[in-house]
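notes to self, project folder thing:

trying the whole complex as one job this time. last attempt i did each chain seperately and stitching them together was a nightmare. two parts in total, labels are on each line so i dont mix them up again. if this works i'll redo the older ones the same way
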Amino acid sequence: MKDARFAKFVVLVNSLVPLAMLGYDASQHRLGANPVEYLIRTTGMLALVFLILSLAITPARKISGWNSFSHFRKMLGLCAFFYGLLHFSSYFIFDRSLSLKSTWDDTFARPFILLGMTALLVMVPLALTSTNGMIKRLGAARWKKLHRLAYVAGAAGAIHYFLLVKADTGQPLAFSAVLILLLGYRLANAYLPALRRKPVIAR
Amino acid sequence: MLIKKPSDIPTREITPEGAYLNRRTFMRAGIVAGTVLATGWTYEKLNGRSDSVTATQQPPVLKDFVAAPVAPTTATGTTAPTTNAVAQVDPNLTNGFRTVEAQTPFANITNYNNFYEFSTGKESVAYAARNFVAAPWTVAIEGLVRKPKVFDLDELLKISPPEERVYRMRCVEGWSMVIPWAGMSLSKLLDRVEPLSGAKYVAFQTLVDPARMPNQRHQVLKWPYVEGLRMDEAMHPLAILASGLYGRQLPPQNGAPLRLVVPWKYGFKGIKSIVKIQLLAEKPPTTWNDFGADEYGFYANVNPLVDHPRWSQATELRIGDLKKRETLMFNGYAEQVASLYAGMDLRANF
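result (full assembly):
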């Protein structure tokens, strides 16, 4: 359907808007006094935002009944992984000066780095199995089970952010609240049968 | 039987295919443009960028300020390396008063600030503080002193004309700057009020005025911001009360009109917009220590060997660099201040 293709195109373009703005700001030396911190902070925030958006798709679809929402889930999830990779790369290049040993040491010295690494690594199998072919190969049920790991990535990412800030925990708490809401909806949907949409039987 | 034929619709009412496609293309372009604008706006908002405007306004030139002879600067504004001859004649290099390292540009010093009274976003402070007026201003000096006094700012600044001090500034977060402050040794002010022999500590307090410091409406930290030094630390010639930077009055975002600068300690010890100084017998509470005693000590001396529980303090990013550098013991002022802490366990007294 042409409209679905257009909708996907709109989502893709919008997903790349932050990247374009970040690139433009960098080219104009508009990343502030500490461009490295700006780059790391912004890419990390984008990864978290896209992760939350991808997790919001299923609840949004169920509540609205608008099934075409699901077209965007894969793209948003891949964007989360992409921004997460950028986040890790900027940390690895600038904060760790491209040293694998120092990255390894830092990962186990600082719990919040370990959580960030966990979030990123958990997303690797999800990105690799994001194609329709992989869904078929794994079988829908197993694929679904595997992709629940997205919640692990989200939780690890949110705690990673929370542990990083000094005193103003507003934004990390807001991210966590949205995640808890999304997870809560799913749990309620799975375990409270009353909440489930009753099938409409045609007479 | 009546079957409506397509021809029943008058030809004039049929939208030509071209026009129909045009309208569709037009609407789609509108959807793309509209969503892209909304996404861009959200991105700027989440980044805290929409409420940060780079402050370009230069504050007034500081009264009575005579800049010390500085090493020649290159066209890019960085300080050229001085020759050994200069190092030999200039005592300021041995007493730590003026480092010859490249100075951090004014725009960076005034647009990257930790000043939670205005905003918790380092790049949003300058904008949030743009309307702050630091006059009239008084500083009360009280406690264990022979001559307690409420100084009018001008009177206080006249005690000693501002001298140039080019100090390294190391933030507990892991970044650093080189800042050409203008100020006077804190000891000169303390001498003026004649401390009593029982005075062992000096406590400082920032202004509380949510109308002028808008983020004080939120209890991010406990207001007023308070800091403290041991008496011998406060009397050290490197500890200054700064009233300017780059030869100009201190901008609001940097702690106008008067702030503490203790270059061998983490930046948060440098309390800003001071209204009260007390001399005490007991160690006073300090804001960040109250907030997290396991993370921020009373001494807060720069120490690459003692990590913050959540991050390493071994390296730092000098603002303007892309590569980190090693952090120096006492921020490079060990020669001048290490004796203050002789025999102390710096791991326990971090």
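what i see at first glance: Chain A touches chain B through 30 residues (CB under 8 Å).
need to look closer tmrw
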